[in-house]
Amino acid sequence: DTTSYGRKHLFDGSAETCWNSEQGLPQSVMVEFTPAVKLSKIHIQFQGGFAGKDTRLVDMVRGVEICPLHPNDNNQIQVFDVPESEQDVERSRIKIQFLSSTDFYGRIVIYALDFIGHTGANSSSSPDAATGSGSDGTETQTASAHIVIT
């Protein structure tokens, strides 16, 4: 049912839709940013029972692991901090790799996926950037993302 499931639903903002993987491991979601972004946080909402366990964030351009992620098996939005030492690195392609899952068959279900950070560009010179104000008053810019499911 592609009206409720599939990669286009990772960023649609609807609580009624989700992305679900096939069975088997590993699973991954690759995201391409235009323009490149400096990430500080990642928000993920899994369906309980279908969460990633041994999970890592990978910079696909540099071919290095940015950091491990340690999701809980629940339905809550989970916030993962990118290490400070990695927050000044511009990234154009990342992968969230799920090496194991809480589901016996290795399936992953994600209802919400958000990246928090900023672009190096001024928002007025970048048509792909949208600006907003965080709860602490800091300005954030979000680049458009292209999703590749592997």
Mind sketching the topology for me?
Layout: E1 19-20, E2 27-46, E3 55-59, E4 64-69, E5 77-81, E6 90-98, E7 109-119, E8 130-133, E9 139-142, E10 144-149
Antiparallel strand pairs: 1-7, 2-5, 2-6, 2-7, 2-10, 3-4, 3-6, 8-9
What can you see in these coordinates?
With 150 residues, the protein is mostly beta strands. The chain contains no helices and ten strands. It has strands at residues 19-20, 27-46, 55-59, 64-69, 77-81, 90-98, 109-119, 130-133, 139-142, 144-149. Strands 1, 2, 3, 4, 5, 6, 7 and 10 form an eight-stranded antiparallel sheet that branches. A two-stranded antiparallel sheet has the order 8-9. The model is unreliable at 122-143 and 146-150 (pLDDT under 50).
Structural class: mainly beta
Strand content: over 45%
The rounded distance between the terminal residues' Cα atoms is 19 Å
Largest sheet: 8 strands, antiparallel
Radius of gyration based on Cα positions? 15 Å
In round numbers, the mean pLDDT is 82
Overall body shape:
globular
Order of helices and strands: EEEEEEEEEE
Number of helices: 0
* Unreliable residue stretches: 122-143, 146-150
Secondary structure: number of strands:
10
Percent range of helical residues:
under 10%
